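RECORD TYPE: inverse folding
INPUT: structure tokens
STRUCTURE:
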């Protein structure tokens, strides 16, 4: 009996040990599967969120002392802060600023060489299979064993002309490796799906038609050199987020599209048309709208920019609802009339002279009526404000349809709500008179009433003009929104997760492939939303606005 009990205890003990071993084995399998799962977080798979290296152009130089808020160094700081918020150690974030594509390609190659040495030092060999993205999804592939996953954020160095620099650094352009590729070949927009409809390329980047063949050949060679470096990165298992400037023949894991010059022009035309309520204006009492188009070095670029304006304002000129105070545009004008309103905006004096000559502003006793001036950027807008003031125009943009605000127009554009339809008395129809002429709400004669002036770039030197209503609107990219989205996407790529259009703002077609797209609506700023759009996010201080 005792022997039987002893045997039972031994059998029970053996069964218990076996069960425990099976349980431990099952746990081990579960942990192993979890580590290999592509949906696992970076911390679960690699123990760290990986590294991020940024390769950005050096800040552009503007013609004047004033500079736009859209600068590369500011984007670098915003992205770095957002990456740290995502859990990436600041020591694992590097930034390299380059003045040329050649320098940028060399910097990327140096980074890859450093990565290779680190892998060798860790006792690893061979490259990881990076794979390729398809169907709008970028797959992170398998990182080199013992080497942290890495994402490169690359904004290819472009060579914008002096006029393009007036808009700031964040202007999407297209780089080509084909020396025969001209601005005309670069004006087509990429097809987009999902939530995006904006272009991922622009003619704004086209090299000057006056550049000689040797310069073009050198530039195209530098583009090819950069493409070679980026392809090496892919083979090394490094993910690439391409910012602003697309490259013909290269497909990144994710593309970040910024505004093109055409986008900027079209937005200003839309804001101006809405503020002046051109859709409700008749030819019997037209609005007087002057277009000041600073000429780019390449005529094809200037033509493309004008097409963005004309797409919106053309119908109003044709119907007579809008007229040109200078007479340079009329009902017979078309998209090829860009030469009539383009000029060399070499400096502020050139802008003032252009406006004065067009409108004969030297004759202050007989000022022409002006309802709106589309000035394209803050550099031009500042000179326009100065010349209008010297000529004797009075008042501010606040006097014109005050119920229609920037916020209302933008909300209407993106489909959030309808514009307010209540129209204030048109200055040309006001009942009061001064010296036999019509007056506006402040008693100014209709012809010297201050017009709407639009711009872009959010120059610090122009902010007080915006506050005062001398310049009705300016604009800039939503830098913080871009930074947060870029940082989130880099973290996903480093975690080994795929990124699809649903994770970002849609997809765009690049070189025949769908690529996840990051694209944000530009911020339009006026006196009524300046605090919310510039001060609250920390883009400027209250003192910068004279507050």
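DESIGNED SEQUENCE:
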């Amino acid at each position: 009996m005792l022997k039987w009990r002893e045997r039972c205890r031994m059998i029970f003990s053996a069964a218990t040990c076996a069960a425990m071993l099976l349980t431990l084995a099952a746990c081990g399998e579960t942990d192993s599967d979890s580590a290999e799962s592509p949906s696992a977080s970076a911390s679960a798979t690699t123990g760290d969120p990986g590294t991020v290296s940024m390769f950005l152009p050096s800040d552009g130089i503007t013609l004047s002392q004033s500079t736009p808020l859209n600068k590369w160094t500011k984007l670098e700081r915003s992205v770095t802060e957002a990456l740290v918020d995502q859990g990436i150690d600041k020591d694992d974030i590097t930034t390299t600023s380059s003045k040329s594509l050649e320098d940028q390609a060399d910097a990327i190659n140096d980074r890859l060489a450093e990565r290779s040495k680190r892998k060798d030092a860790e006792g690893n060999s061979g490259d990881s299979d990076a794979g390729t993205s398809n169907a709008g999804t970028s797959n992170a592939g398998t990182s080199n064993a013992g080497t942290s996953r890495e994402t490169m954020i690359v904004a290819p160095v472009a060579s914008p002309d002096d006029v393009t620099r007036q808009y700031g650094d964040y202007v999407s352009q297209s780089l080509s490796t084909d020396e025969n590729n001209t601005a005309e070949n670069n004006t087509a927009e990429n097809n987009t799906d999902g939530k995006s409809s904006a272009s991922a390329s622009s003619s704004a980047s086209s090299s000057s038609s006056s550049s000689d063949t040797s310069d073009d050949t050198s530039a195209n060679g530098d583009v090819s050199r950069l493409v070679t470096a980026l392809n090496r990165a892919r083979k090394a298992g490094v993910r690439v987020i391409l910012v602003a400037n697309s490259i013909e023949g290269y497909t990144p894991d994710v593309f970040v599209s910024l505004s093109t010059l055409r986008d900027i022009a079209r937005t200003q035309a839309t804001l101006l048309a809405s503020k002046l309520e051109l859709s409700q204006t008749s030819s019997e009492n037209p609005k007087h709208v002057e277009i000041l188009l600073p000429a780019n070095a390449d005529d094809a670029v200037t033509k493309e920019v004008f097409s963005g304006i004309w797409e919106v304002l053309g119908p109003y000129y044709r119907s007579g609802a809008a007229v040109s105070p200078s007479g340079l545009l009329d009902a017979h004008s078309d998209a090829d009339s860009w030469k009539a309103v383009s000029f060399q905006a070499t400096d502020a004096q050139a802008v003032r002279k252009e406006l004065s000559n067009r409108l004969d502003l030297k004759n202050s006793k007989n000022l022409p009526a002006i309802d709106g001036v589309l000035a394209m950027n803050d550099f031009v807008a500042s000179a326009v404000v100065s010349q209008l003031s010297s000529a004797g125009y009075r008042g501010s943009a606040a006097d014109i349809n005050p119920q229609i605000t920037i916020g209302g127009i933008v909300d209407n554009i993106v489909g959030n709500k309808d514009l307010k339809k209540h129209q204030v008395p048109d200055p040309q129809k006001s009942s009061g008179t001064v010296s036999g002429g019509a007056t506006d709400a402040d008693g100014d004669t209709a012809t010297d009433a201050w017009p709407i002036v639009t711009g872009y770039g959010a120059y610090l030197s122009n902010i007080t003009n915006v506050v005062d209503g001398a310049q009705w609107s300016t604009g800039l990219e939503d830098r913080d929104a871009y930074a947060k989205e870029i940082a989130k996407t880099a973290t996903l790529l480093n975690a080994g997760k795929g990124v699809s259009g649903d994770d970002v703002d849609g997809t765009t077609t690049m070189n025949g492939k769908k690529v996840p797209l990051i694209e944000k609506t530009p911020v339009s700023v006026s006196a009524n939303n300046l605090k919310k759009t510039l001060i609250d996010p920390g883009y400027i201080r209250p003192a910068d606005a004279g507050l």
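NOTES: The chain has a mean pLDDT of 78.
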